[in-house]
């Protein structure tokens, strides 16, 4: 999952397609992924919870928050993704379920990994 996040940051579209389960790919996957990676800047990834997903497991579930910047706005993607093992690059994403945004505790490190607390960074009241 982290490797897919890195691939988004590095705009490695081939990797993103390879790690998407073949039965879930759409004919416009490449165009859609390209639009996504070019439209935003990823600021940080926080793993909220995991279930299984060790190398010996057939499936795994990861809940994460990925923070990104689109234009002047920072936004978050809060998702629960189900992974299947079985390809040479270390598994496929099977499906992702979008979840409502999570709010970090004001004194927690900001999810954009700036090193500031949330209240001093993206949680600042404007
Ligand atoms: Zn921040």
Overview of the molecule:
By secondary structure, the chain is α+β, with helices and mostly antiparallel strands. The chain has a single domain (2-101), classed as Nuclear Transport Factor 2, Chain: A. Helices cover 21% and strands 34% of the residues. The chain contains three helices and four strands, in the order H-H-H-E-E-E-E. It has a four-stranded antiparallel β-sheet with strand order 1-2-3-4. A hairpin with a 7-residue loop joins strand 3 (73-84) and strand 4. It is globular and about 45 Å long. It starts with a helix and ends in a 28-residue tail after the last strand. 13% of the residues are buried. The mean pLDDT is 84. Bound molecules: zinc ion. Zinc ion binds next to loops.
Low-confidence stretches: none
Mean pLDDT: 84
Determine Rg (CA atoms, Å).
15 Å
Q: In oligomeric terms, what are we looking at? A: single chain
The CATH architecture can be given as: Roll
Give the strand tally.
Answer: 4
Task: Describe how the helices and strands are arranged.
Layout: H1 2-10, H2 13-18, H3 29-39, E1 41-52, E2 59-70, E3 73-84, E4 92-98
Antiparallel strand pairs: 1-2, 2-3, 3-4
Zinc ion binds at residues 110, 112, 114, 121-122.
Features:
binds zinc ion, 126 residues, globular, 4 strands, 4-stranded antiparallel sheet, alpha+beta, Nuclear Transport Factor 2, Chain: A
What does this entry show, briefly?
With 126 residues, the chain is α+β, with helices and mostly antiparallel strands. It has one domain (2-101): Nuclear Transport Factor 2, Chain: A, CATH 3.10.450.50.
């Amino acid at each position: 999952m982290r490797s897919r996040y890195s691939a988004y940051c590095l705009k490695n579209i081939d990797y993103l397609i390879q790690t998407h389960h073949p039965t879930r790919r759409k004919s416009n996957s490449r165009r859609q992924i390209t639009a996504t990676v070019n439209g935003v800047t990823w600021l940080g990834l926080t793993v909220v919870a995991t279930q299984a997903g060790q190398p010996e497991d057939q499936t795994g579930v990861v809940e994460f928050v990925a923070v990104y910047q689109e234009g002047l706005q920072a936004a978050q993607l809060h998702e629960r993704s189900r992974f299947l093992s079985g390809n040479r690059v270390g598994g496929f994403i099977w499906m992702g379920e979008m979840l409502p945004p999570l709010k970090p505790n004001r004194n927690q490190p900001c999810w954009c990994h700036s090193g500031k607390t949330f209240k001093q960074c993206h949680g600042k009241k404007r």
